[in-house]
Amino acid sequence: MKPVNVGLLGIGTVGGGVHAVLARNAEEISRRAGRPIRIAIVADKNLEQARNLTRNACPITDDAFAVVDDPAVDVVAELIGGYGVARELALRAIHNGKHVVTANKALLAMHGNEIFAAARQKGVIVAFEAAVAGGIPIIKALREGLAANRIEWAAGIINGTTNFILSEMRDKGISFAEALKEAQRLGYAEADPTFDIEGVDAAHKATLIAATAFGIPIQFEKAYVEGITRLEAIDIRYAEQLGYRVKLLGIAKRRADGVELRVHPALVPAKRLIANVEGAMNAVLVKADAVGATLYYGKGAGAEPTASAVIADLVDVARAATTDPGNRVPHLAFQPDQLHDLPVLPITEAKTACYLRLRVEDRPGALADITRILADQEISIDAILQREPEEGEGETDVIMLTHRCKEKQADAAIRKIEALAAVVGKVTRLRLEDLQ
Q1: Which of 49, 59, 326, 357 is most deeply packed, by most CB within 10 A?
Q2: 1.20.1090.10, 3.30.360.10, 3.90.550.10, 3.30.70.260: CATH of 138-299
Q3: What is the CA radius of gyration of the chain?
């Protein structure tokens, strides 16, 4: 049977993994797909590296547009990253009637609506399992495995770099800066780690999860994004004492009035399985009405884990390529004319419990003033941890856990608390997610 000819754009870490796994498991993949899947041509700026990796088994070029224009190519695997040239290449491949497989979460978070619309018009597939959580098949689970369910929320540890940093801070009691340096030394963090540590990478992925889970358009620009750069080791220690662990979560939550789409550090009860995901691993917890909670865990990055997802998409394309486009699994799980117009809510409308750390002068009535402000904002207290002042100290740390409230209520309370004479400096606020 005629093989599926793949044009591979980029043969770096992930592209090299795709080439290696396709070669190693060629027979197994062919049995699953119903016909062979082979790399017909590779485009990469580093021609020498490309020749070394492919051992000249296929043509090599430094012109990616030559690949998307090649009539012999059935599927374009876009693994170059970014969303400038990558967008042009994806749209041109689609215009040429080629299916597209991509691991590029930034591309789809920024231009996914345009790309999926073009693909529908041309009757081709855009597959993106590898764009979210590496080798974990979370997109397939949301699109197909959970199709009977109304998905209520999803919360994920979807950036391995930040999870490694937080694990190091907790295990070794070190600062963020020290943990980041170690992550860079071990190759978990890039020389410029901004997209990871500021939460942007996780927000790209959370945006795709939200669109696929709820059948809404991709709306990255409306996501709330907060990274881990301001986290202090002391808050991780206090969280531990209270029975919680701090994780950077990507959260998509459906409410009657809209969708919460946010990325930020959060306290998670230590007894939850997802709280015990350590190092550079990823995990996504999905709550659905019929099945309840399901957890997806595995490697969120790396050459072969990500290649696993890319090749799974290639197999799906091989199976579905001859199917009538109207009978294929929709790109975002729901039929295009059935996408919901639920708005993405601003962060001020999000409802979460809070962890508050205050530096308070050790004087009578100070705590009463703080609790009165919280009560005025209709915020109830779940727990208080007050450290005894050291001998000779006139100040102490007070830690409060609140019940769920709207973000704007917490903001108003924090402003008033910081204005109290007995409160020293700024209040540290982290959100708390019970994930029941």
Answers
A1: 357
A2: 3.30.360.10
A3: 24
Residues 6 or more apart whose Cβ sits within 8 Å of residue 178: 168
Of 105, 140, 205, 253, the active-site residue reads: 205
Query: Beta-carbon neighbour count of residue 126 at 10 Å?
Result: 23
Distance CA 3, CA 159 (A): 35
Q: What pLDDT was estimated at residue 386?
A: 87
Task: List CB contacts of 58: < 8 A, sequence separation 6 or more.
Answer: 38, 39, 40, 41, 42
**Residue 264's beta-bridge partner residues?**
249
Which residues does the chain have with pLDDT short of 50?
none
pTM to 2 decimals? 0.96
Cβ atoms of 356 and 415 closer than 8 Å: no
Domain residue ranges of the chain, discontinuous segments joined by +: 4-135+303-338, 138-299, 351-432
- Which helix (H) or strand (E) covers residue 109, if one does? helix 105-122
Q: Which of 134, 65, 169, 166 is nearest to 312 (CA)?
A: 134
> Hey, what amino acid is at 81?
G
Q: What is the DSSP string of 13-33?
A: HHHHHHHHHHHHTHHHHHHHH
Q: How far apart are CA 110 and CA 126, in angstroms?
A: 15
Q: What is the pLDDT of residue 353?
A: 98
Torsion of CA 279, 201, 155, 185, to 10 degrees: 10
CA atoms of 421 and 425, how far apart (whole Å): 10
Concerning whether 205 is annotated as a catalytic residue, the answer is yes
